[in-house]
# Entry
Amino acid sequence: MENQPSIAIILGTRAELIKTFPVMLELKKKKIPYYFIHTGQHNLKDLCSLFGVKVPDIVLTGEPKKSSKFNSNQFKAIKWNISLLFKIRKELKKLNCLKFVLYHGDTMTTATASMATSRIINPFKKYRNVHLEAGLRSFNNFEPFPEEISRRIAGRTSDILFAVSEFSKKNLKKRGAKIIHVGNTILDSADIALKIANKKKTKVISKERFALITVHRHENLKSRERMEKIVSILTSIPTKSYFSMYDNTESKLKEFGLYEKLIQSKNIKLMPPMNYPEFIYQLSKCSLIVCDGGSMQEESLIFKKPTIILRMATERQEGLKTNFQFLSKLDVGKTKEKIKEYLSRGFKIKPFKNPYGEVGVSKKIVEELLK
# Structure
């Protein structure tokens, strides 16, 4: 392999690519070659084209046609992770000039990549493994699951930890790792995505006030009781609401007999997932976010949008210190009251400083690696 790159990037999911592509663009800008390893957890080709980054140099397992590779099949997921350990090690051995291996976030790919590149398995390695978006903690191993465990594994096995906030930096223990507070790359991702959307003259989905909804967390989808509460909350929103729905969410709603309730709701419109620039554009225009994902909590801070978090616990605890993010704990009554408050004409967001920093985080990361 001629002109071997000194940096390898291991990604598996669309969310990981969305938050890492600004780092890739920064490397491209500085003409620093990198080797892109895709584990195959999600299909990424369309996003690579959209963001102007190269397609993976290698795809370790077959990419799924649908959004979810495993559909809650834990045995299949465990088997996949074990095989991935050896595939990653084998691929990295081809890169003799390797200095850094980067991986992002809190997915199964993150945990496996961190272990496959750790000193536990590679005691004589010369490269350093790097965790982007380190230090987020809910302090509950099952909320969210398995993300909280993945983050902890990466925190223990990585040589360099790029923390997203002061809070996340405090959550990381030294253990011989280098801990650097740089901020969150989501600021760069959202900034670039909004520019792409504006360049394409994206139109807003409603000229009236509207809420933007997503639900996809595993611990929610597997529970009929939770999904019943969530549907009760969603159907109470007193304004137009657009539910961007993944196939696994639709499947579970139908299984629990809840899909029709959403169809029959006069304020809710179901729609397929949007690409990231379009989604960010709609998020920047909405009046309310209702979600159970992590990234939307960060995007809420960027665009200053009131947000209902449909979870029992969150690892993005920084936003809870503002007056416009509410951790519902799926308390239907309290959540409905909070929605009314957030949509009232008199509600105002109090001044705050984004705990995740400012645009330019990806440049800081690359500069740190080049030191």
Q: What stands out?
A: Residues 195-343 form a domain with the Rossmann fold fold (CATH 3.40.50.2000). The chain has a mean pLDDT of 94.
